[in-house]
Amino acid sequence: MSIVQQFFKQVVTEHLAQQVSDLYLLPTATGQYQLLVRTPVKILPAIAIPPALGPQVITYLKYLANLDITEQRRPQTGQFTLPDFATINFRISTVGDYHQRETLVCRLIYDNHTVQPRFIFDDQLQQLIAITTQPGLHILAGPMGSGKTTTIYGVAQKLAQQNKIVLTIEDPVEINNANFIQLQVNNTADMTYTNLIKSGLRHRPDVFVIGEIRDTQTAQATVHAALSGHTVLTTIHALAASEVTTRLLEMGVKQAYLQASLRSVTYQRLIPNTKKQLHALQAQLSGSKIWESNGDEWNEALAYALAINKITTATYEEFKTIGS
């Protein structure tokens, strides 16, 4: 095993317990490289890399992902797996900056069978599953690294166990699951979110899982799928549950269509419990609450978690200004 292979294996192994989500290889002002490690809670202090090792690691990961190792300016994306980490899918993105120095981000996607959603309140997952048995649009909101994909897959898995056909559309597929029909976006082949949703409707699934609403076309196609009588689970980046409808309206979704299709909006974050273990906390809105919310639901859930000693006062103070 080469020095480069040993280095990458050691980095991943040392941070698995912290559920590392992203690895960043970034050039510094001196031309050397540093490694940043993102966990669900924070970015850890930078790790200095010997001058020659940074570019070698980037080349090695690009080779594993079947990318062009000679191209160092244009953006490239790819993915790979390693025998030593059978339950992880590695997804990388590279680009050269204006100094023609290449940077790389490696995201670690964990197998759904090894990472199950854990909650501050166990009944929140059961409530979400109960809500999503209703046809219509169900949206999970929150920032990157808040466990949205893990939660949605956990809900979809429960629905699949109820003899429902689940079809996922993702960019890319993040978690392999043999119980789902899984489609992957490929813009080069004209397999866009919109076109795949249209094709997916012909398969007559009971449940759609649409990876993320990112633009007007995806938003409108997602709402159309929900209006056709399907259960649609999807995610969106938003600062609070009460802001989800605003974002969709800004994307051009007609309010009448949104009111007719939207069944639930859930805001989620990963926060440490009293044992410093990361668990999900949600603010759930359904029915008329979606349109009447003033954003207080998040702080109410957080305050209740503090009152029954699920979280510490420090955690409450840190997270009480978000999600509302």
Automatic annotation (TrEMBL):
Pfam families: T2SSE (PF00437). Residues 3-295 form the Bacterial type II secretion system protein E domain. It comes from the Bacteria. Keywords: ATP-binding, Nucleotide-binding. SUPFAM superfamilies: P-loop containing nucleoside triphosphate hydrolases. InterPro entries: ATPase_ComGA (IPR047667), P-loop_NTPase (IPR027417), T2SS/T4SS_dom (IPR001482). Belongs to the GSP E family. NCBIfam families: ATPase_ComGA (NF041000). This is ComG operon protein 1. It comes from Periweissella ghanensis. The gene is comGA.
